[in-house]
Amino acid sequence: MADLEYLFFLGCLIPYRLVSYEVSARRVLERLDVRLIEMPEFNCCGFPFAPANYELTLCLAARNLCQAEQKELSILTLCNGCFATLNETNKLLEEDGKLRERINGYLSRIGMEFKGGTTVKHLVHMLTEDVGLERLKEHVSIPLTGLRVAQHTGCHIVRPAKVVGHGDNPEDPKMLKDLIRVTGAECVDYMDEAECCGGPIIGVNEDVPFDLTREKLERVKAAGAQALITVCPSCHMMYDFNQPRIERAFNQKLGIPVLHYTQLLGLAMGIPAEELKLNQLRVKPTDLLSQLKR
Amino acid sequence: MAEAQIEYPRVVNIQRIDPKFKHEIIRMPGAEGINLCFQCGTCTADCVISRFSGFYKPRRIARMVQLGLKDRLLSNDDIWLCTTCFTCVDHCPQGVEVSSIVRALRNMAVRENRVMPSVIKAFASNILKSGYVYLMPSSRLKRREAEGLPQLPRSRVEDLLELFKATGFMDVLESAESIDRIELKAGDRRG
Predict the structure, then answer these.
(1) DSSP A246-271
(2) What is the mean pLDDT of each run of 10 residues along chain A (294 residues)?
(3) Which CATH architecture is the domain A4-123 placed in?
(4) What is the pLDDT of residue A294?
(5) For residues B44 and A106, what is the distance between their CA atoms, to the nearest angstrom?
(6) How many of the other CB atoms lie within 10 Å of CB of B49?
(7) Is residue B166 part of a domain?
């Protein structure tokens, strides 16, 4: 198999709050012979600024894309928001000559020019399309048979469908489900799986995201899942980090461990839980781990 | 449950209409299709936020843009409640990017109305210091090293400042009034 190599775009939230996602991803990708090239230089993808000044977002994203162009590498992200912003900017500036000219006008002030030609992939796309389920399966040494989990794909790697590409179904996402099944775990269905976590507005209102999060966790629990699997740091923060706060706000015990997909895959590859930083999760997956040991 | 009285006026005052408003919005990326909205309401039916806010109904917002109710739109904090889940964009039978229209409204509110969520101001201050929207504590950077993780890539913040200035964002960053928290109002519903 040809070597897989990507420019690794880590983003801001992962190194700040969710090193467990980074560490588990690096461990798993190392096993899969996926080479990660660090960004020579970095700035936030631009996602948080889109509501305030979309042109600034396009500039910030383009600045990162320019580095990938120079390196002639595809960008790999672990974050849905980073994926969405870099991918959308890449496509928009490739297709819309007028906008490209305008953004390049700004970029010329810092000696950069967007040319296009890069591909942006999220981990889920990369594992599905480039590594492939078959090859992934070969690396599963301890199938997680008997484990029941649910998935939360999140919004920005499936919607808007015409911008995202990659062919997953935004109404009923399948890619993460297939990736989960490769580990030997069962992936259960639940109501409104494609619904948003509410995370992007947590900075201005907690009530609505908390309601949405509680609703999802209740449905996941009712479906009999022992854990929720995420692929986005922002969604993970909502379901794991905020879960105790939601339990207090609604005076209700939820107790659903929320694992990064890379942690689940790592377990199935036989990587020890400590190395996958499962101890860093806020909702401890104690029952789940003891079941796997049996 | 009886519907509570919604606090904003239901009458359109013709003096307050800005006939050029929709044409301004149309020029902003993603908002080109606003005139195609025929008020079917698919966006509102499928919007998670509409379940909670009395004001944030994408169909209403699209109609208010078409009518030119600029002041009422830009001065209502609820336009900041969209999570950008893009369900409305995927479902619109007319191909209108409703969520992008809301983004255009927010951008205009920042530029002209000069309001901005304080969280975005904090992100702006952080990125101009480090390139990241969060300031990484030195303890965390040391722990990375201890765990054998690669050093975080650095950023040329002087370049970022240049882009902030070039796009006009620097001009409003200081002067914009902060939106700290959007309270759900009378007439809003919890889900």
Answers:
(1) HHHHHT------EEEHHHHHHHHTT-
(2) 86 98 98 97 98 98 97 98 98 97 98 97 98 98 97 98 95 97 98 97 96 97 98 98 97 97 98 97 97 86
(3) Up-down Bundle (1.20)
(4) 75
(5) 37
(6) 25
(7) yes
Terminal CA-to-CA distance of chain B, rounded, Å? 13
Q: Which residue has the higher pLDDT, B49 or B8?
A: B49
A167 close to A203: Cβ distance less than 8 angstroms: no
Least confident of A215-229, B2-16, B60-74, B154-168: B2-16
Question: B82-120 burial string, b = 16+ CB within 10 Å, else e?
Answer: bbbbbbbbbbbebebbbbbbbbbbbbbbbbebebbbebb
- Chain B nearest-CA residue for A162: B90
Mean pLDDT of chain A: 97
Architecture of the CATH domain A141-293: 3-Layer(aba) Sandwich (3.40)
Burial, B151: exposed, middle or buried (Cβ in 10 Å; 0-12, 13-18, 19+)? exposed
Q: What is the DSSP string of A76-87?
A: EES-HHHHHHHH
A138 backbone dihedrals φ, ψ, rounded to 5°: -60, -25
- Type of residue at A238: M
Say what the pLDDT of residue A18 is: 97
Token digits for A284?
């401890």
Per-residue pLDDT averaged across B31-45, rounded? Answer: 97
Shared domain check, B122 and B93: no
Residue B32 shares a structural domain with residue B84: yes
Whether the predicted interface score ipTM is above 0.90 = yes
Closest CB to A38 among B153, B168, B180: B153
- State the total domains in chain B: 2
Q: Which of B167, B181, B183 to mutate to test the interface with A (most CBs of A within 10 A)?
A: B167
Distance of CA A54 to the CA centre of its chain: 22
| Cis bond upstream, residue B137 (ω within 30) | no
C-alpha to C-alpha distance for A57 and A89, rounded to whole angstroms: 8
**Burial class of A198 by CB neighbour count within 10 A (0 to 12, 13 to 18, 19+):** buried
Q: Where are the alpha helices (DSSP H) in chain B?
A: 21-26, 42-45, 58-67, 70-74, 87-91, 98-108, 118-130, 138-146, 157-166, 169-173
pLDDT value for B1 = 42
Residue A241 main-chain phi, psi, to 5 deg: -60, -40
Beta carbon pairs, A and B, within 8 Å = 179
State yes or no: pLDDT of B140 exceeds 50. Answer: yes
- Distance (Å, whole) CA A143 – CA A228: 18
Structure confidence at residue A293 (pLDDT): 85
Interface of B with A in 104-163 (CB under 8 A): 104, 106-107, 110-111, 116-120, 123-124, 127, 131-134, 136, 140, 143-144, 147, 149-150, 152-156, 159-160, 162-163
